[in-house]
Design goal:
- The structure is a single chain.
- This protein is 6% helix and 48% strand.
- The protein is mainly beta.
- It has five domains: 31-134, Sandwich (Immunoglobulin-like); 140-231, Nucleic acid-binding proteins (OB fold (Dihydrolipoamide Acetyltransferase, E2P), Beta Barrel); 235-338, Sandwich (Immunoglobulin-like); 351-457, OB fold (Dihydrolipoamide Acetyltransferase, E2P), CATH 2.40.50; 476-583, OB fold (Dihydrolipoamide Acetyltransferase, E2P).
- Strands 2, 4, 5, 7, 9 and 10 form a six-stranded mixed beta sheet that branches. A five-stranded mixed beta barrel has the order 12-13-14-16-15.
- 40% of the residues are buried.
- Residues 1-29 have low confidence and may be disordered.
């Protein structure tokens, strides 16, 4: 379990990028496009401000604008300085450039009141947003919900610090009773950036801030905020043990709390949480002081029991609080996640179960089994080494987010990057995926950028012997491995006929049986030889002795159908369940 304090996954992505770039640059998680700052403030008297652009490709700055679409609604467009929609009060020089490092100057004229405008840098496949603000925007008092629903302007908001992701730039989550927003950059008492630690803000503190709203993807942010007031929390979570998810068989976890309130720790479990979590004990204890581990510090230990979970992984946030005799109160939350039996390799989730788990807030890695129903942008991309596609229970793309699960930016078999030497995934393939879940814009999916990977395709965990698709059929060894791997989907197996069973095809039944191997030799070795058992002929039709040729040793065939294992023999399911897709090249 992770001490998240309701921390959003997207915020983690954004702030991770911030910690990994040059100290003098506002880091995005773009390696090919960076700017020295993305928020450009200029006094009401006018003036100029310079930024540095670093790009690995040609770049161009355009301004946000709107125009009416065919339905009369506003749509966003991007315009260059020659457009009459370009904000006339802003001059940018230069507005474009070649790959490398360049200085760009933003100049504005005098203005009695405040104004701002957004711009965007395009460079190759990368973009970076910029905001130019002149003067001081008068903040509006608002709740988180009002900020989320409102326009992009300055706001003042009071809320509780739910998580702190970056202690240099000051990136953290603020929440009130109406919702939660991301604070993306916090100025110190002198208005300077990259000095967040000097403010002494901690998780659980009640903080009032003001700053401009921006929307990055679906994340609502207040950018480079000014801190108006800090009210210290009466309760702080020092750590939670264990840090990992509770196992499916159940267990317990303990929150180590520093309590400043005079009324101790208050635990607030909802009726739904109480079905699987219970309070075990609250007692005093000690732990190593994080500032000097040779010293100890007094803490309150709050221990919970967690019941066994035979279903899908589950996840929730427990509220802990404290108060004093003056009527002051504070609350913090700890995230509890538990693995489940459902979602293991032995009992993988169906796509529908994975969707339900993701939408309930589960994020722990799980196994999901389904049939590929649609590729996204062709499937796997060697440029990134990952691929995206949809899966469903029956292999149909339903255009229904309660049935269609997206495998997003997953790595290939063996948790390795996909290359052009690997076979492409195809619709109809049965896959097992392993990785953490998330929900993005209402779509349940695996977390991206290689957080998940394809554990198996059509029952095999390596593509060395094919993956059972039409363009990459199994060889005989792959067919044996797939059958023993429990594949239930119909697959393609190719090989050379090495031994006939009772002469091959039988006119009375219209089907036939024979063995295939990779090189056409027959050794009686069931680990390398696959039996085509009671298969029909081309197109799934019964074999006709008058019009169809008899099978012969040395013939090359591709078989299509469901597989099974009978008395240790890997074979096609019988009675015409499978058929010959091609015979010596004829289909």
């Amino acid at each position: 379990m992770k001490l998240r304090y309701l921390f959003s996954a997207l915020a983690a992505v954004l702030t991770f990028g911030l910690t990994s770039c040059d100290e003098d640059f506002e880091a995005t998680y773009l390696d090919d496009l960076q700017v020295s700052k993305s928020y450009i403030a200029i006094d009401a008297e006018g003036g100029a401000e310079e930024i540095i652009v670093r790009a690995n490709d040609v770049w161009e700055i355009k301004a946000y604008a709107t125009e009416k679409d065919e339905n009369g609604k506003d749509k966003v467009i991007y315009v260059d300085p020659s457009s009459d929609k370009w904000p006339s009060w802003v001059n940018v020089a230069p507005a474009s450039g070649e790959a490398g490092e360049a200085k760009v100057t933003f100049s504005v004229s005098e203005k009695n009141d405040s104004r701002s405008h957004d711009f965007i840098i395009f460079s190759g496949n990368n973009t970076q947003r910029l905001t130019v603000q002149q003067g001081v925007l008068t903040p509006s008092e608002a709740t988180c919900a009002e900020i989320i629903a409102g326009p992009e302007k300055n706001y003042r908001v009071k809320g509780t610090v739910k998580s702190i992701a970056n202690t240099i730039y000051g990136n953290w989550n603020l929440a009130d009773e109406t919702g939660e927003i991301l604070i993306y950059g916090t100025l110190d008492k002198d208005g300077k950036a990259k000095n967040f630690a000097s403010l002494g803000i901690e998780v659980g503190d009640e903080v009032t801030v003001e700053g401009p709203k921006k929307v990055y993807g679906t994340t609502v942010e207040l950018v480079d905020v000014t801190v108006i007031k800090i009210k210290k929390s009466l309760l702080k979570i020092e750590k939670v043990e264990p840090a990992d998810a509770i196992p499916s068989e159940g267990g317990e976890f303990t929150a180590y709390c520093t309590v400043k309130g005079t009324n101790g720790v208050l635990v607030d479990l909802t009726p739904e949480q109480a079905k699987w979590i219970s309070l075990k004990s609250v007692k005093r204890g000690t732990m190593p002081n994080p500032k000097d581990e040779t010293l100890s510090m007094d803490v309150t230990l709050v221990t919970f029991n967690v019941k066994a979970n035979n279903a899908a992984p589950r996840n929730t946030d427990i509220i802990l609080g404290s108060s004093d005799e003056k009527g002051n109160s504070s609350s913090v939350s700890i995230n509890v996640s538990q693995l489940g039996m459902l979602g293991t390799l032995e009992v993988p989730m169906t796509p529908e179960e994975a969707i339900a788990a993701a939408k309930s807030g589960a994020t722990a890695p799980v196994y999901v089994k389904g049939i590929v129903s649609q590729l996204v942008k062709g499937g796997f991309d060697s440029g990134y080494g990952n691929g995206s596609f949809w899966i469903s229970t029956d292999g149909k793309f339903n255009e229904n987010l309660d049935k269609d699960f997206e495998v997003y930016q997953a790595l290939w078999l063996g948790n390795k990057k996909w290359t052009v030497n690997n076979p492409q995934i195809e619709e109809g393939a049965e896959v097992i995926i392993y990785g953490p879940l998330t929900v993005y814009n209402g779509t349940a999916e695996t977390q991206g950028k290689g957080a998940a990977y394809v554990y198996s395709v059509n029952g095999v965990t390596t593509d060395a012997n094919g993956i059972g698709t039409l363009t990459n059929p199994f060889n005989a060894v792959g067919g044996v491995q797939a059958a023993n791997g429990g594949v239930t989907n119909k697959v393609y197996v190719q090989g050379t006929v090495c031994e006939l069973v009772k002469g091959g095809f039988d006119a009375n039944y219209g089907n036939g049986s024979f063995w295939i191997s990779e090189d056409g030799s027959y050794k009686g070795d069931k680990s390398v030889e696959f039996e085509a058992y009671q298969v029909n002929y081309l197109g799934g039709k019964k074999w006709n002795s008058e019009t169809d040729p008899q099978m012969a040793v040395g013939d090359n065939v591709i078989i299509y159908g469901p597989l099974t294992v009978y008395n240790g023999t890997a074979e096609t399911q019988g009675k015409g369940a499978a058929y010959i897709y091609s015979h010596n090249g004829k289909k």
